Backbone:
């Protein structure tokens, strides 16, 4: 009963989150979002809406085209496709999630996953190593005696 | 003039080559002859610094004397350039900056060779490695990028002038800081390679290089942040980090250097991660060289890059040789790098360092991957793609947040093993405090569910506060114990606490600074901007501010002409300041430059400070009216405050520990206050 309730709650939370995340944005927000997902083509290397060259032939024209496309009611994909046709694939500020470009997005997380697996493997292998045997005559202090040593060590070295 | 400089460079090459070869030969023997040969190599290395210094002085003097017979001076200076910038001519172009690199390397080498008595054999090995790197740069300077090349044809009357973007006070400091960082990593690299070659027993080489590494890291940190501040204060686009390839190039060695600073503690304390540390410092050095290669080869297009040139091939060969040398000695001597201890628990300081290193390295890999992906894409798909800010922001931010979480939790873990009970005890209050901040943000209108950037900002705020609260709680908890034992007040006890273990508590201050920097960054999703043509008396409203254009004015000096807008700033119906965004026109180069003006609202908003950032963008050619762009950038001043705190923390960490002080011990046994160690 409990597990079913938890499952349902999680599903509900996921649906609510999805609704919030993918809710349609207003024209200003779309202009802002699309304008920040494209580069200015004047060679300044800046995102379209951050190009600050007064009278920049490229960014002014591109912004006007973007406003016109939004006013026409084109969807985001269509607008971006139009810009790619006009200005080439480098106009998009980040690799698209298609074809080989997917690799760009996936690799950092693959590296993270592999790294995590490696660290866990290293930690486990270290933990499973047998403790080196003590040389003859060495006795490990126990209980109160060990606590005394610990207290002394803390006082003389660090807290 | 040029002959003296050229001769000095040739002499420096000869001396460095001798220092390398004689030093190398001397390493093979242990007889008196070898010792004498080694001593001559050491002295040649010192003398090489003198020769490079002479070359640098000649170049700067030529800039001050407006000697346009030198091509470098012609291209990077002009008669009316202010004196401070004439000094900066040294590093403003390809050839000069390579000379500057060589000069700094010589300077580091000088200090290393003067301190050789610390451990003569190890220092001799390190000195040979340093000399080898110096030979490479001097070969470049003598044969590929000569700073004393002579102009052909008639002697020009005036030079082209320094790039206007570089004519800003910070630009006199930023490159030297960055270079001190880049070049400085040669020292720990040289010691690491030297220690590997000679199978240096124990971890003393790490202790010897610890301060070098911390100082170098601090220089690189300052360099990176000054670059960001320069971008913010000069470029006029309202941002401070654009994920430009050259910015990325400076970030990569910083990330691996940071990982190294953490993981060496495991080697020092527990004799673990020896192979890892060796490769971390090798990678950091190679990434420093890679950064230099990216800036200079033209392989990546960047607004920062120097002119495209052929010296990229030299760097590729040098990096390949360096990597081959590292691999060779690693394979030959890897048995020397066996770990002395095993990990006892996943919940321990050791494992937190492992994960911290992993995240820093993944962040570094991501930056490298994003920087190089356009080239890879061209190879595979036949066309370049752009990998800009949207990619980096989306991929790096989750990694950075995980790292921030570790920054908060890591210091609470003890070496070897931490009980969950003690972790809970130390972590509960800071966690409650941090989550409360998140709740307050939501109450005051931040909606993390509306946009991913708001979600990340909220999480980053919570985690930053968690770092800050854990740092404060560590100081208070430790301070209380000392105050109880030593009959002193809490503040004095905390100072005493720091002095007993400066690296640990200095490190906490650095973490505090990092949290402030993150707080500064997390304001960016809430930025606002307005652009408007403003005539006299026109108004712009942005956030709580009303901007009224009072006037425009002009001025002129031999170096540039400029125009200012005079903007009165009102808030709550009261004038709080007047701002003067400026636009300059440099005469020699004919290039314009904007100089934004920034008003941080510490007085009005205190902790929730916001920058009002005004740019005078110039005249709209079609209407003839001036354009003003206003940005509101919340929290940005915390980034620069965070830098100051980080530098302060590093300085505190560099102070030697106080000698163990004996205090009167009360009869009862104190409860275990904090995890031991760094």
Residues:
């Amino acid at each position: 009963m409990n597990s079913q309730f938890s499952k349902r709650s999680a599903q509900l939370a996921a649906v609510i989150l999805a609704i919030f995340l993918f809710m349609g944005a207003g024209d200003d927000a779309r202009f802002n979002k699309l304008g920040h997902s494209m580069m200015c083509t004047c060679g300044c290397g800046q995102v379209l809406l951050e190009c600050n060259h007064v009278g920049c032939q490229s960014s002014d024209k591109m912004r006007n085209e973007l406003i016109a496309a939004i006013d026409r009611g084109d969807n985001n994909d269509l607008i971006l496709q139009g810009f790619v046709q006009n200005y080439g694939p480098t106009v998009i500020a980040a690799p698209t999630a298609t074809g080989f470009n997917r690799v760009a997005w996936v690799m950092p997380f693959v590296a993270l996953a592999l790294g995590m697996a490696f660290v866990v493997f290293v930690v486990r292998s270290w933990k499973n190593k047998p403790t080196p045997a003590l040389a003859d005559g060495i006795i490990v202090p126990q209980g109160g005696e060990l606590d005394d040593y610990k207290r002394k060590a803390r006082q003389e070295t660090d807290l | 003039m040029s002959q003296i400089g050229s001769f000095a460079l040739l002499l420096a090459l000869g001396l460095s080559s001798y220092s390398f070869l004689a030093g190398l030969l001397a390493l093979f023997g242990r007889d008196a002859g070898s010792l004498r040969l080694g001593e001559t190599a050491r002295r040649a290395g010192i003398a090489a610094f003198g020769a490079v210094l002479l070359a640098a002085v000649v170049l700067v003097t030529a800039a001050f004397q407006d000697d346009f017979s030198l091509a470098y001076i012609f291209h990077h200076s002009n008669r009316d350039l202010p004196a401070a910038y004439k000094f900066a001519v040294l590093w403003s172009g390809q050839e000069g900056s390579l000379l500057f690199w060589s000069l700094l390397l010589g300077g580091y080498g000088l200090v290393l060779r003067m301190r050789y008595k610390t451990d003569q054999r190890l220092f001799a090995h390190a000195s040979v490695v340093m000399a080898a790197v110096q030979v490479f740069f001097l070969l470049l300077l003598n044969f590929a990028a000569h700073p004393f090349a002579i102009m052909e044809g008639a002697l020009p009357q005036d030079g082209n002038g320094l790039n206007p973007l570089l004519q800003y006070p910070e630009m006199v400091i930023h490159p030297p800081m960055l270079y001190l960082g880049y070049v400085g990593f040669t020292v720990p690299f040289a010691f690491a390679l030297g220690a590997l070659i000679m199978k240096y027993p124990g971890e003393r080489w790490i202790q010897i290089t610890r301060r070098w590494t911390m100082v170098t890291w601090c220089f690189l940190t300052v360099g990176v942040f000054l670059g960001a501040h320069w971008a913010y204060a000069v470029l006029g686009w309202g941002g401070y980090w654009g994920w430009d390839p050259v910015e990325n190039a400076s970030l990569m060695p910083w990330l691996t250097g940071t990982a190294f600073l953490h993981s060496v503690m495991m080697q020092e304390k527990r004799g673990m991660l020896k192979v890892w540390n060796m490769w971390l410092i090798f990678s950091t050095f190679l990434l420093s060289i890679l950064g230099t290669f990216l800036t200079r080869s033209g392989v990546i297009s960047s607004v920062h890059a120097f002119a495209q040139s052929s010296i990229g091939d030299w760097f590729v060969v040098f990096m390949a040789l360096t990597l081959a040398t590292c691999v060779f000695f690693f394979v030959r001597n890897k048995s020397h790098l066996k770990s002395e201890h095993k990990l006892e628990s996943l919940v321990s300081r050791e494992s937190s360092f492992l994960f911290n290193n992993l995240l820093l390295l993944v962040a570094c890999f991501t930056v490298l991957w994003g920087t190089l992906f356009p080239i890879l894409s061209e190879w595979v798909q036949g066309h370049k793609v752009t990998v800009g800010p949207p990619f980096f922001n989306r991929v790096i931010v989750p990694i950075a947040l995980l790292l921030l979480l570790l920054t908060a939790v890591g210091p609470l873990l003890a070496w070897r093993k931490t009980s969950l009970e003690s972790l809970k005890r130390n972590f509960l209050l800071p966690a409650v405090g941090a989550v409360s901040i998140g709740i307050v943000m939501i109450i005051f209108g931040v909606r993390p569910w509306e946009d991913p950037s708001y979600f990340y900002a909220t999480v980053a705020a919570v985690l930053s506060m968690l770092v800050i609260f854990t740092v404060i709680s560590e100081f208070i908890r430790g301070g209380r114990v000392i105050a109880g034992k030593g009959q002193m007040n809490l503040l004095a006890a905390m100072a005493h606490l720091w002095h007993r273990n400066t690296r640990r508590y200095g490190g906490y201050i650095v973490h505090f600074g990092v949290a402030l920097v993150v707080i500064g960054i997390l304001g960016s999703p809430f930025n606002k901007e307005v652009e408007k043509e403003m005539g006299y008396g026109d108004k712009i409203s942005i956030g709580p501010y009303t901007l009224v254009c009072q006037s425009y004015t002009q001025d002129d000096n031999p170096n540039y002409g400029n125009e200012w807008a005079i903007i009165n700033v009102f808030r709550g119906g009261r004038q709080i300041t007047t701002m003067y965004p400026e636009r300059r026109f440099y005469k020699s180069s004919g290039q314009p430059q904007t100089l934004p003006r920034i008003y941080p609202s510490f007085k009005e908003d205190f902790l929730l400070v916001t920058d009002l950032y005004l740019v005078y963008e110039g005249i709209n050619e079609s209407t003839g009216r001036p354009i003003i762009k206003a940005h509101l950038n919340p929290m940005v001043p915390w980034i620069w405050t965070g830098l100051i705190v980080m530098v302060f923390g590093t300085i505190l960490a560099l102070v030697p520990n106080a000698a163990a002080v004996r205090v009167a011990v009360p009869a009862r046994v104190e409860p275990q206050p904090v995890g031991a160690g760094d």
Chain A has a mean pLDDT of 74. The CA atoms of residues 61 and 77 of chain A lie 20 Å apart. Chain A touches chain B through 52 residues (CB under 8 Å).
